[in-house]
Amino acid sequence: MVRPQATRKRPPAPKRDRGARPNRRRAPRKAREPRTGSGGIVTWLSRHAQSLVGSLGRLARHPLNTGMTMAVIGIALALPALLHLSVTNIRALSGQWRDSVELSVYLEHGRSEDEARSLAAALERRPDVMETQVVTADEALGQFRAASGFGPALDALEDNPLPHLVTVRPEENHTTADAVAALAAVAGDMAGVAEVRADTDWVRRLHGMLDVGRRLVMLAVIVLAVSILLIVGNTIRLDIQNRSQEIEVQKLVGASNGFIRRPFLYSGAWYGLGGGLLALGIVQAALWALSGPVARLAGLYGSDFRLAGLKPEDALLLVGGGAALGWLGSGIAAARNMRRIEPGRSE
Amino acid sequence: MIRFQQVSKRYPGSGDALSELTLEVDAGEMVFLTGHSGAGKSTLLKLIALIERPTRGQVLINNRNTSGVSRRAIPGFRRDLGIVFQDHKLLQDRTVFDNVGLPLVIAGLRRKEVGKRVRAALDQVGLLDKEGSMPLALSTGEQQRIGIARAVVAKPPLVIADEPTGNLDPDLSLEIMNLFCRFNEVGTTILIASHDLALIERLGRRRVELKDGRLAADSHGPSPGHA
Ligand SMILES: Nc1ncnc2c1ncn2[C@@H]1O[C@H](COP(=O)(O)OP(=O)(O)O)[C@@H](O)[C@H]1O
Ligand SMILES: [Mg+2]
Prior knowledge:
The complex is a heterodimer. By secondary structure, chain A is an alpha+beta fold. In chain A, 64% of the residues lie in helices and 7% in strands. Chain A has two domains: 46-96 and 205-340, no CATH class; 103-197, 2-Layer Sandwich (Alpha-Beta Plaits). A four-stranded antiparallel sheet of chain A has the order 2-3-1-4. Chain A is elongated and about 105 Å long. Chain B is of the alpha/beta class.
């Protein structure tokens, strides 16, 4: 009988540490090992925290690869964000213009000022009209004289060539192109009216373009979300391949798929989060670069329009959406690639 | 602890690696599995670890029929099993501590408890001072001891080893085998595949010999821990 005594560096007597000995004292004892019980949640949380930090550490060890992946995701996320901002800003701008939707109702020559006033009153009684204003021929000429600088030339005219004018502002909720056109038709049929001008085409076109823009944002979001899933998925797939031996060993010592998958999921989420933050940075930089020139341009048009930035909830959506996409992409990649790595198959 | 009933295993595209094998190992026994290369030793161990499934027959571990263990239940099943490999299968980018602690982390033990048990296991294989080292910095014999520490750290009732001394010289081999003996003495059932007949002879334990996938010899030796 050989004494179990041979190892070289081994201290002569094993320590009397309770957890130390390989005496198992019966199998049912194993049931005592955590998973449930008071410490369960804490253990679960700390395990997740460990994976979270651990996966971040792993990413930090390959800064170039990590940075590239994050950059690609960041650009992919920044694109729809910038598109979205363009559309919302143009819409805000068009809202400002919408206030200036106005009908100009020109009376026939020879119609009196009183006729103009009663026409204005008749229009104002309509429910789709907010207010009217009469600009008499004399007032119009005066305004023109002041604005154009053609004073002396105008003095040479014997008669005032301008007709009386009634400007009509539609009610707030009747400013769509269709409503304005309908109102213009009504005004045009009224007695004594020579012409009605309502430039509704540009409103129509603008709204059409905004619709296209919104659709584009949606399309961009879908296309780029899919591409982010693919980017993260591919990165994680390579990662899984590189660590197939480690995964095999983990499976051999009893790791569940969930346990093995966890660090990959967190890596994916980190990629997405990094990409989201980068996208936020890109958007803010673009806003910062554009805001000055835009404000100056608006000033030239006498507008106090300012570029609207991302709302806090939008920014949160960008970053959170990035993280969620990263998580999802790595989850899909892990589900597809981890199953294939089984101990024994390689031998 | 281990019961094979009329077990046959056929790999796709080849003959029977095991045929009609019936074998019983009691709790607390230490058994050596011998036989020529290709006799089916590794296959037998893989059936125990559920790395492979039997083509026919039943394998019962701890009175549990392995055919009833679903894919999803395999991880839980393996946590009650310690496995030692010829090439020790350590994770090269993790420290000795992390390698040995892996089964405990998987089982969800708290950090403090993990540390305590890892140090105890390292102490038992005589490598307490190496907990911070990377596996590659250790000798082959030391790496195998780390592999053994990982196999026993969660105190599984059954430890299996496939040629654990296959890469070691005789002195180191004896050292490793003695380590197994010591774990057996405190109650762990141990099954070791090896073709180091001289060494096995010296240890005087039960020896089961396979030949072409069949039982060729079975010598019941002394089995401490079991009457
Ligand atoms: N994955 C496998 N696929 C096909 N045949 C295999 C596989 N593993 C082992 N075998 C065959 O099964 C037989 C037993 O192999 P093995 O159990 O590894 O024997 P041992 O470990 O005793 O050397 C051999 O003939 C071997 O070629
Ligand atoms: Mg073998």
